[in-house]
Amino acid sequence: MKNKAVAIFAGVGLIAAIGLGASLSQQTQDTLKADNLRDAERCINVHNSDAIKGTTTACDRVKTKYLSEEQQEQYAVAYVKHKEVKAKKAAEAKEKDSKEAKARQERLSRQRAEREARGEWTYSGYIDDATGKRAKTARLTSKNSMNFGFPYSGTQYGRFTVRNHPRHGVDAFLQIDQGQLLCDNYSNTSVLIRFDNGPATRYGCQGAADHSSEIVFIQNVAGLEARMKTAKKMYITVSVYQEGSRTWEFNVKGYDRSKV
Fold this sequence. Notes:
By secondary structure, the protein is of the alpha+beta class. The chain has two domains: 2-89; 122-259, Invasion associated locus B (IalB) protein (Immunoglobulin-like, Sandwich), CATH 2.60.40. The chain contains three helices and nine strands. It has helices spanning 2-47, 69-118, 221-228, and strands at residues 122-127, 134-147, 155-165, 169-175, 190-195, 201-207, 215-218, 233-240, 244-251. A hairpin with a 7-residue loop joins β6 and β7. α1 crosses α2 (69-118). The protein is rod-shaped, with a radius of gyration of 41 Å.
């Protein structure tokens, strides 16, 4: 008797579960239909209104099987407009992207042209403490590097500078990080400078007033500037202690005297 009651109870529970499942399924269907109808109405209202500009993603979510025939007809008209607006916006976006890409390319081209015209020169300035006036410089870093023997081992580049100083006037000098550039009043009185494929010319040189061995001042700056204005490359050859003659290459194209 007990087993029979349990079986009857289980059967009732199964029927109840089936009924609940059917009820939940119906609720889900009703919810889907209600959401679908709202999307359809949203789509129709957007594309039938002159005040609303654009489109809505609701148009792409509509399932026509949940709509009445009248609603399907209204939605079909709205969806055509929806596709037209989407296509127009896609074309406008593509055109905008194309214009932006073209403008970006033109900007990059201008920047490249400006860099080529300016060359590799870096123009800057500083205040001379003694006079309170501004000194201006134009600097280049050599295209090639050197590696001297002990105690000056390690990769280093040459730096060429044209300077307009309130106390010293316009001068030019070659400088390295470490080592001894030889320029004196006896055996090393000049440096050898060549522009492009032209002949090498000797320019007088002198050491720094503070006796720094890493720098040599080059004389006849006016002659140097005249050559730099039309040349692309400049090669400076200097005697280096225990290293012989060493040559540094500089890209002098684009030198602008008005900035110094």
